[in-house]
Design goal:
With 629 residues, the protein is an alpha+beta fold. It is built from 17 helices and ten strands. It has helices at 2-31, 48-54, 74-78, 93-103, 105-125, 148-151, 218-221, 223-283, 291-326, 329-332, 355-365, 367-389, 411-417, 438-506, 516-553, 556-559, 618-628; strands at 87-92, 131-144, 156-171, 177-189, 199-211, 338-343, 393-407, 424-432, 562-565, 574-577. A hairpin with an 8-residue loop joins strand 9 (562-565) and strand 10.
Length: 629
């Protein structure tokens, strides 16, 4: 019996030496620059079963691989339940986009703010609506008299009157005030000189006041309407910017949630592989594994489980963030017991975008540049308004009236009589000019400085837009290159883990260099999981960089098929979903992409002719200002 044990130990020790020799030969072959030699060419394999056990998987002919060659085994698992919750909700990105546009309070808020800006146009334009004027009343005069010529005898003057008037007043867009009034009334008196007594009277009067110099013209009198129109356009561009920013945040939360779910699947796979090694180490405790190996495995498993807890917590936080950004009442009502599963496909091909085309598109579509242009238009309007106020005040006033009179309170007959006689007329000119016009001159200079300020702000917006577009394009290209690099790194990490696993299966024990094989295996497993997680992060980052590039160019809403509109030209704002437009289908504008602050000769707003300057250069504008002063 003792001899059988010795022979068994000698056979086991001999097999261990053979395995060690084979492992050393394999390590030398792998570390050399020579191509791999199949194990079948080695002499004297231990046995057919041992040969199958020692056979290594074939290495790829090339180390570099494309992203398409990476098999994302984790996706199918990430699209299923991971948090052990009783309920799951699956959704894709178009569903998130639709729900966000319909239910997000932030988008609804900015759309209402834009509607308020459009209502300001109606309010300012209503100033030119005619105003109906109605008045009626009774009056009694009971005054002592100091002259018999007043009453012809009575010591007090007593008169009773009833009057009713109606008409309308209208302000024209060129500054004229038109006032048309019709009066009807009765009057009786105790004066002996009052004839006829009682009386019925009628009077129709027309008054027109027209400014001829200052405060005249359509530009000046419609300045508030034009200003409200400009402010509504600024509010529209701000709404576009707010919607784009909110959609970017929502898309980022969606893709980050997908990323964390993939990380959780990969981390759990790492723990499962570590637990498998722990079971093997525990099973070989009586043969060749010592306590040091078991401690190493348990320590690594504890660290991996800590990382798993962190990923699960981050995943739950992203679920809360996504629910908040979407704003859907159905999603908001969900608690932590409901798991949100994003159905995403990160395999998006790279779009080749030329830097010049991206900059030109950005200068055309970016809402901040459009808003800065409208701010410059408002400053141009201020120059025209202050130039008008610099003129003297000269008003033409025209008054005309028709009147009729009948006795016995017959005011209706008096109304007919007023058209049988000629009118009474009055025409005057009223002139005023403040001495020195210092206030008016100061307002002109202030408007000029404000225009120069808005010009510089527009130029700054153009520079910022160019910087953001270039930065976003550089980041997008870098992320796509990183995605390719991470795919190659992942392939190498998978190959490294397979080799390390084979080495550990061949060598064991706590002493000598073989004690480091387990530590190397655990490290390669961790590096593989990190490579998988970095690959998923690179995929998600490349998609997010494309979204941020579209936002930097101002084309995110078009590429996502989102179009704000005003149905029926009303103040109500609707956010519609239309067919998305591809980036290459967006035609760049034909004009030059460089802003020149010298171009001020054309109209600065949509209403042609409302804001125009006399000269086409800043020097000409200065000379015009000097001539006015």
């Amino acid at each position: 019996m003792h001899s059988q044990v010795l022979r068994a130990e000698e056979t086991s020790f001999q097999q261990f030496l053979d395995n060690a020799a084979r492992n050393m030969a394999e390590a030398n072959r792998r570390d050399s620059l020579q191509p791999e030699t199949p194990l079948a060419t080695e002499s004297k394999p231990p046995s057919s079963s041992t040969t199958d056990t020692l056979a290594l998987p074939p290495e790829p002919t090339e180390v570099t691989t494309a992203v398409d060659t990476v098999a994302p085994w984790w996706e199918s698992i990430a699209f299923s339940g991971l948090l052990q919750t009783p309920e799951q909700v699956s959704f894709d990105l178009p569903t998130v986009l639709t729900d966000t546009l319909e239910t997000s309070p932030r988008i609804s808020s900015v759309s209402r703010r834009t509607s308020i800006a459009y209502e300001k146009i109606v309010q300012q334009n209503a100033v030119f609506d005619p105003t109906l004027l109605l008045e009626g009343g009774y009056g009694r005069v009971n005054d002592p008299v100091g002259s018999t010529l007043t009453t012809g005898g009575p010591d007090r003057l007593i008169q009773n009157s009833v009057i009713a008037s109606g008409g309308f007043r209208k302000l024209t867009r060129r500054g004229a005030v038109v006032d048309l009034t019709q009066e009807l009334g009765t009057l009786d008196s105790n004066s002996l000189f009052f004839e006829p007594n009682p009386q019925g009277n009628s009077r129709v009067s027309l008054s027109i006041t027209q400014p001829l110099l200052a405060t005249s013209g359509e530009v000046y009198n419609t300045r508030l309407v034009t200003q409200a129109s400009i402010e509504s356009r600024i509010a529209w561009q701000e709404m576009r910017s707010e919607i784009e920013s909110h959609l970017v945040d929502t898309f980022q939360a969606f893709w980050r949630l997908y990323e964390r779910r993939c990380h959780l699947v990969q981390q759990r796979s790492l723990i499962e592989r570590g637990e498998q090694i722990a079971r093997i180490v525990d099973g070989r405790a009586d043969l060749d594994s010592g306590p040091l190996q078991r401690i190493k495995v348990q320590r690594r498993l504890a660290n991996d489980r800590d990382r798993q807890i962190e990923i699960e917590a981050e995943l739950q936080r992203l679920q809360v963030r996504l629910r908040t950004l979407v704003g859907s009442p159905e999603l908001t009502a969900l608690n932590q017991s409901v798991e949100m599963i994003p159905l995403a496909n990160p395999a998006i091909p790279k779009d080749d975008i030329d830097l010049k085309d991206a900059i030109v598109r950005g200068l055309e579509y970016r809402p901040d540049i459009q808003a800065a242009t409208q701010e410059l238009a408002a400053a141009g309007l201020g120059i025209n308004v202050t130039r008008n106020e610099l003129k003297p005040q000269l008003d033409a006033v025209f008054d005309a009236y028709l009147s009729g009179l009948r006795g016995n309170n017959r005011f209706f007959q008096a109304f007919g009589d007023q058209f049988t006689e000629g009118p009474g007329l009055t025409a005057t000119l009223q002139y005023s000019l403040p001495y020195g016009r210092r206030a008016a001159r100061s307002r002109v200079r202030e408007a000029r400085y404000r225009y120069q300020q808005r010009s510089e702000e527009l130029r700054q917006s153009l520079l910022v837009a160019r910087r953001e577009i270039e930065t976003a394009l550089i980041q997008a290209n870098a992320n796509f290159q990183l995605r390719e690099s991470k795919a190659i790194t992942l392939q190498a990490a998978i190959r490294e883990e397979e080799i390390a696993m084979r080495r550990w299966e061949l060598l064991a024990g706590d002493g000598g260099p073989t004690a480091l094989v387990l530590e190397d295996l655990l490290e390669t497993q961790k590096r593989r999981t990190e490579s998988e997680q970095l690959f998923v992060t690179a995929q998600v980052s490349s998609i997010i960089s494309l979204i941020e590039l579209q936002k930097a160019m101002g084309t995110l809403l078009m590429t996502e098929g989102v179009e704000p509109c005003r149905p029926g030209n009303t103040s109500e704002i609707d956010i519609l979903q239309i067919e998305p437009v591809e980036i290459d289908q967006l035609h760049a504008p034909a004009q030059s992409n460089q802003w020149s602050p010298q171009v001020v000769g054309e109209s600065l707003i949509g209403e042609v002719g409302l804001i125009e300057f006399e000269d086409s250069s800043s020097g000409g504008a200065a000379s015009t200002l000097e001539r006015m002063e």
